[in-house]
Amino acid sequence: MLVTYILLCGYFICTSLASERTEVIYGSDKVMNIIIQFLFNANKISSCGDYKAPSVVFEIEEYKKLLSDIKKRGIKLRYVTDITKDNVKYCRDLIEFFAYDIRHLEGIKANFSVSETEYLASAALLEEQMQQQSSIPIQQVIYSNVRDIVEQQKYVFESFWDKAIPAERRIREIEEGIVSGSTEVIQIPSRTKELFIDLIKSAKQEVLLLFPTVNSFLREERIGIIQLLKEAGSIGRKVRVRVVSPTNNTIEKILQNMQIDKPDNFLDIQRVEETTTTSETNVNTVTILVVDRKASLVIEKVDDSKLDFIDAIGSATYSTSKPTVLSYISIFENLSNQVKLNEKLKTHDKMQKEFINVASHEMKTPTQAIIGYSALVQKHPEKRDEMLSAISRNADRLHKLTNDILDVTRIESQTLSLNKEVINLNDLVIGLIEDFESQIQTEHSNLQILYDGPKSSDNPFLIEADRGRINQCISNLLSNAIKFSANEYSDGDGGTVSITVTKEEKNGNSDNHNIRRIQGEQVRVSISDNGEGIHPEILPRLFTKFATKSETGTGLGLYISKSIIEAHGGRIWAENNKDGEGATFSFTLPLHKKQHQQLPVYRTRVGHKQ
Amino acid sequence: MKKRILVIDDEKDNASVFSIALEDTGLYEVNSFINPISALSSFRPNAYDLAILDIKMPKMNGYELYEKIKNIDDKIKVCFLTAFGEGYHEEFKRRFQGRRADNSSATHVHFLRKPITIDDLVEKVNEII
């Protein structure tokens, strides 16, 4: 670096030395003079300086002056140094304002300059000198104009220059944060342990931790890691902690005792089956910790059977280098996604099995009745009618189940088609009620169905819809209401089911009002029962497949109804009645545009199922 | 004297088919219920030789009902009769097969699947009783 300063020379008049010599020069004044002479004699200078050198030029007034002289004289200057986060701004200035041609060589310690004919080097390590007092000029230098020495040093410089990388590249890397950190291999397990603990304690935003085996979890629990994670994820610190780990009963018990799965902390543990982590991939042999996306600690295990953390681990790699940390984050995320995907598949699988179980139960139950009655009917002529009607009732049930399953298939393959026509909704509802009433008389004699809405002739609600599908949907809601209203075991000690058909009330909010006008007007059908209401557990997934609390339901009806209503541009929802027992299911459908023009009323056939 | 059988199945048609079929043999007297709770409330010791229980029922499933019945009458024989899938049979095996060695009353527990023909049902019941 001295060399650097040297370059600066200028108008100081120096006597050039005629004879060849090599000497050590002491004292800052003498050093300054020799620097000035060196610069004065040079047209091309090649310099090396350690990481401190670039800042020194700017910190010491005398050297700063020399800088501008170099520039004035147009000396061509090549400079190799160790560009770091701390000196990068000086390096940039040297390039920009003083036309230095700089290259970066990691860790270079040499401090010398060589011109065409002279060599100048600081006689002590600049680093040591500068550590004590930051801005004193150099006190001693080695000077030589011996040709062989100068040539030798030129050669040394050229070999550094060839190994070094362009400053622009290094500066860009630093500015983008790519090399802002370092990577260190830790061979001493106790240091690894301390670092592990310190890192989690220091976390401010996020901790990612991957345990490769059940044993590694247990070992790390023993040194207090899990407790630290719990503290990090607590309300006080709000660090988002994500752990991927294989588990077993012991681990589950530990987690339970620590109350780690409480919803009010920020700790998320994804469980992996241990079998998936014992395969021979590298990921499974190391514990990976990433803190705040800034630091990673990867700990290799050498003997997983050991109970003690220190005994079980080998070397560890601690890194704050961005690319390294990012790679570990991506490894963690990939694994975590894989685990999530696996869980999804399992849930899907479980639902599929559940469906097969429920559907097979629903098929076998009426089949049992049909088989039984068919065998008995001949022996019991006196009960012939009763048995035949039971057979037909159960056959209907099978038929309905078949249709439901087919409908679900259509919905899922998106082939449910609607045959739309303009229909009178009131007539359809009234017709359905008549159907149900006749059925009720035989089964639940005391149950009442109340209708509240316009009669067919006055003010009909016209909708453009698939008659069969809307029929199916209302039937389903009605039969659910009847099923849950009637007390099944007291021979029809009935309840009340009421159906309301009204124009959907406009929301008081004027914004909503506007939206509604754009969408057109809606009719609402609500069906209330006074049964036991919807179980809170099932409420959130009421309209999803297989949701049922009934012992005689497949859990398909509401799912199908929702699909039908939504296919018509409507909305369906359910709520427990506020003022007492039972529940209300409601749906809306868009009214037909011609509604308001009082077109001749379509005399729809009353909605009998033929 | 006729043997007495208790049938509990929440499906009215099934309860009635089983009752008629068993009574038709002339060997049995059958009482049937579609509600496990009311069946239990009228259940007395030594009233029945065999109880045929559905498993999937509202309010109380067949296994719970079994435990309650056994508490009242530990000599009664029990036959589960269910349309539900493998899950219930797995549970049945868990519950009862382990017990056989040390609990003689567990040998009186049987498992049948719906749908079952009238003839098969009668034959099985004859075997059990």
Radius of gyration of chain A: 43 Å
Give the strand order, joined by hyphens, for the main sheet of chain A.
1-7-6-5-2-3-4-8
Describe the oligomeric state of these chains in a short phrase: heterodimer
Distance between the termini of chain B: 13 Å
- Report the average pLDDT across residues of chain A: 82
What is the residue-mean pLDDT of chain B, rounded to a whole number? 86
N-C termini distance of chain A: 101 Å
SSE-based structural type of chain A: alpha+beta
What's the helix count of chain A?
A: 20
Helix share, percent of chain A = 40-55%
Number of helices, counting only DSSP H or I runs of 4 residues or more of chain B? 5
| Uncertain regions spanning at least 5 consecutive residues of chain B | 100-105
Shape of chain B: globular
Describe, in plain words, how this protein is organized in 3D:
By secondary structure, chain A is an alpha+beta fold. Chain A has 20 helices and 22 strands. In chain A, the strands form 4 sheets. Chain A has an 8-stranded mixed beta sheet, sandwiched between helices. A 7-stranded mixed beta sheet of chain A has the order 9-15-14-13-10-11-12, sandwiched between helices. In chain A, strands 17-19-20-22-21 form a 5-stranded mixed beta sheet. Chain A is elongated and about 140 Å long. Mean pLDDT of chain A is 82; it is low at 1-17, 276-283, 488-492, 508-518 and 597-610. Chain B has 129 residues and is α/β, with parallel strands linked by helices. Helices cover 41% and strands 21% of the residues of chain B. Chain B has 5 helices and 5 strands; from the N terminus they run βαβαβαβαβα. Chain B has a 5-stranded parallel beta sheet with strand order 2-1-3-4-5, with helices on both faces. The two termini of chain B are 13 Å apart. In chain B, 40% of the residues are buried. The interface between A and B is medium-sized, with 25 and 29 residues.
